[in-house]
Amino acid sequence: SRTALQMVEEALREAKSGLVPATLVDRATSAARKGEALEFLDAISQLLQLRSSKPTVRQIVELTHAASIIGLETVSEAILEHAKTLYPNNTEVKLIQFQSLAHSESAASREKARQEMLSHLGITKEAEGYSFSKPLSADIDTGVLCIMLDAFHKDNLHADALSILDKAKDLHPEDSRIMRNYARALENTGRRLESLDFYRRANFLPDADDTTAVWVGNELHNRGRYVDAAEVYLLASLRDPDDSGNFLHYADEISRC
Questions:
Q1: What is the mean pLDDT of residues 109-138?
Q2: What is the value of pTM for the model shown?
Q3: Which residue has the higher pLDDT, 16 or 44?
Q4: Residues 195, 186: contact at Cβ < 8 Å?
Q5: Which of 138, 148, 128 lies closest to 172, judged by CA?
Q6: Which helix (H) or strand (E) holds 123?
Q7: Which of 188, 223, 183, 222 is nearest to 203 (CA)?
Q8: Enclosing H/E stretch for 27
């Protein structure tokens, strides 16, 4: 194993050559903004080979975003795989990877996302449907569930999403995120009358946020109920007055009334 002196000397050599995470991340993100793929990949390659230092989680997020901007989705996934080795128990890294895979344009990546998140949540598929080995243990688990559902809907696996949510809403009847996703799954499986009722239920739960209100507003808008949609968008604006998007929704809907 390396001695402390050897480690310091190696860090010094890398720093003198400009091989430190901050410098390489700046190079990579700048190259991505300019559309310079070779420069971007060179910076990433050097970053992944660093021995004396490692990028922070926030820097990893920047790099995955930059890779997506430049159209290098597989590189983004590779960065996140590397991040898992650097931060094996970091919740944020795990969530970012799940989100990247679930929203990927690759069907194989989305399938990988579904399987990894089902395993993470302790959900198994049985003959009669999906079952939970335990309730969702923390707020983070609900976030993972919602990301996973995107991956199901992206591949038109709406019935599977509904089966999962049938159990989830019974386990967590006061969670507005689960309830609004249940409403979406009902909508996607053709149960439109029921779906609007569950969108409304989600919006009246104690933890309902502006996103829940926007989902309800969007559904009402899609049904041509512009006055009702405007009222709900106004509620979203009151729940989060710092989100200008909520006010834009409201203004646009008012213009249709």
A1: 91
A2: 0.81
A3: 44
A4: yes
A5: 138
A6: strand 123-126
A7: 183
A8: helix 21-34
